[in-house]
Amino acid sequence: MTTNSQDASKSAAQSAGGSDRSPGHATAFNVANQAFELLQSYETPPIPHAYEICYAYALGKPLEVLDLVNRAVDEDGILSLYKVLEIHSTLFSYPETIRKQQEETASGLSSELSTMIVEVSAHLSANDTFADSLGEVSQELSKVTDPASLGRMIVLLMAECAKARENAKQLSDNLEVSLSAIRQISDKLEEAQEAGLRDALTSLRNRRFFDRALREEVTLAHETGSPLSLVMTDIDHFKAINDTHGHPAGDAVLRAVGRLLAANVKGRDTPARYGGEEFAIVLPQTRSVGAADLSERIRRELSGKRLVLTESQTKLGKITASFGVAQLRENETAEELISRCDHCLYTAKRNGRNRVVTEED
Asked: Which of 119, 160, 217, 277 is labelled catalytic?
């Protein structure tokens, strides 16, 4: 469903978002006013997250917000709090726990590197002292005329060498400890970064990872001339599941679909939660016929399941999904591929749902 305010906001998004420069003072106020109009038109709770989404919609950036908001309004007639939180999590949020973990690991890494610098500096200083001592002994040796003095010089030289060896060993031990700590910190930082690229609910890759992976695979496919296909799937009547059984049931369905997608891919295939109840699979080295076969296998397996909530033993009944499939064309961008695949998906939903549609159909 597209309201008059929605049409007006699209026009404003095109005019306000037509330049890469930040909007001027007057334009910013104009966009802000339109954001408030959208809040009223969509009956959206006036919370900061909702304003941020409506402002981005009126501005037209990022482009993904236009699609996500339009779909939410088409489905519900309003932009509900649930959809606000979902869209904000997809496009604007970065989990605070992950940010904190990254900050802590970065701080620990900096501390260990500082310790290593101090240790190396001390070692270099000790080496300078050792070199000075050798210079002094060398000068003294040139003046030695009797065996007793030579013996004392040799004893002094041996003592300095022993001290240098001890310093070198101590440095090596300290550096090994620091390196071990740095490896552990690096592992934690990698884990935090990995968590930031996964959807917390389904454990699939999230939209951020999907966007990056698809662009990379599109570039590689163009460079090598290899096929690349994209699958987009949307759970049928998902709103009805939430309305009838509550959002925990909806979450359980999302997790089940996520597990099903993950179990049916291999190699460089990348399943991801695209947003809300929509998922995507990037399929390198795959033509549309192969992608369609995979989609049909997943569709049949999903429609054959009968999900039951563990705690309440509530039966959710038959769950189905619609699928759109498209293969990358010559010189096509990732965005153009998504648009064609998305069109196939909505053709599947318009034609009765619970089916796979390709451009050849």
From this structure: 277
